[in-house]
Amino acid sequence: MLRGLRTLTWIEIKVFLREPLGAFGMIVIPVLVFVVVGRILGYRVSLPSLPANSFLRVGVPVLGSILITLSAVLSLVTIISIYREGGILKRLRATPLRPQTILTAHVLVKLLLTGVTLLLMLLAGKRYYPIGIHAPLVSFTIALLISTWSILSIGFLIASVVPTARFSQPIGALILYPMVGLSGLFVAVESLPPKLQIVARILPLTYAVSLLEGIWKGDGWSAHVRDVTALILGFIVCTALSAKVFRWE
Amino acid sequence: MAQEIPAGNSVIRVSELRKTYGSTLAVDNVSFEVKTGEIFGLIGPNGAGKTTTMECVEGLRTPDRGTVSVVGLDPRRDAHRLQERVGVQLQQAQLQKRIKVWEAVHLWSSLYRKKTADGEQLVEQLGLVEKRNTWFMDLSGGQKQRLFIVLALINDPEVVFLDELTTGLDPQARRAIWELVRGIRKRGKTVFLTTHLMEEAERLCDRVAIIEHGRIIDIDPPETLVQRHCPERTVVLSTDDPTAEERLRAIPRLEAITSTDSRLTIRGSGDDFVTDVIHCLSEYRIKVTDFRTVLPNLEDVFLKLTGHSIRD
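The joint structure predicted for all components is written out below.
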């Protein structure tokens, strides 16, 4: 069904790494920022001084992960709209290649690169961040993959309809970043005004944050069935919608 | 699955095709057939409806009305099966900027269900061997077009669609591409192309359809069209003989003579007209220092049929 997926994914990885700012912007810069911030904070903050569940202890790693995910999503939106505007999608349409194959290939590329970035951060973090944070890294990685996959599908929905490459980045940012504010990361969802609470409950990012925070703190998966279900549901809805509204040109 | 279509039968049938964009009528009541093994050209100025027609045939656009069949398939309903059997080169298509030539060829050959043509061999035939490792963005216009031809041929298609293949290329690259297209026909493929270059149509196409304002005005081999619509012949000669003009006026089916200095331009019609001029010259022993004939071409046909030049 997904004929050509392996070749397309491999080629897209190579094409991305050849971009002047590709690997640098996506991998090196986040890791560097992380290391620098980690160093500054690391001297001042020692672990015992952090109250349990403080923002620095749980919020920062989750926020970092979410921001990296969002930048991956924005980059996906931009790439797809550039491909559409340049006629690359149109050319691919005249082949047996299906839109879902193109989608999957790009999602795989972003997941892989996001994974590499986070892995490097974790390795750097072990060295520079306040020692002694014992987060369940494997579970957290899985939780992050599920979250990223789900948020990427929103990105693809945006990418399916945004008319030009020039608008894709701002429109994507306008849709995605407010989600962070409502996600419960800074203000608990329960303390939002009732109307905003409803909005927050619809946004997949809220569930991603809840899942990531929980797993980071050491919750078991059973405590987050609702989050995982919501994220998968979000993925299915967005993917189905984008397959319907996908525009080749 | 791939039923053989005997030579001479129609591989593409288009009947009463109509397509509008909003309130603009792009293609109206267009009907034609393309026969197996021929190079068929859709010619007309920019905006005449060439690309719209071709994209309806390829299945990239849905016509408002009319029927299209390609190798016996409906391009919309059987899109997936059709894509396996045709090759497409699109106007103004691009690839990823930093994809290498061999990667594009490799990707394309991984997309088809059936066994594909030998990509390496195609790359060699189209003179891209030295560019195998070059990024798409670093190729010249002609090289990009040659790569697109490789990609259009990668699935060993029965029908190849070429939309404005040589637009923007220099004359030398253009001639090289023409040779390649003739090569495609030699392999028994059918070629359906669009062009706004009359010379290209004349040199390449077995049959052409002239399209303007979304309607087909006439269809036939280029020489037939010229004979039908532009039977006139023109002879231009230089002579110092003062009696020449008067003698030449006696030629049957003569339409006009104009003279500037020692040069005479003689216009008439009919297949015998040029012979009659030569006879007249030799009969009266008129000495000429220059002699050439100007034959009408598709460009003139277009001018005659539409009242304006294709370049306007």
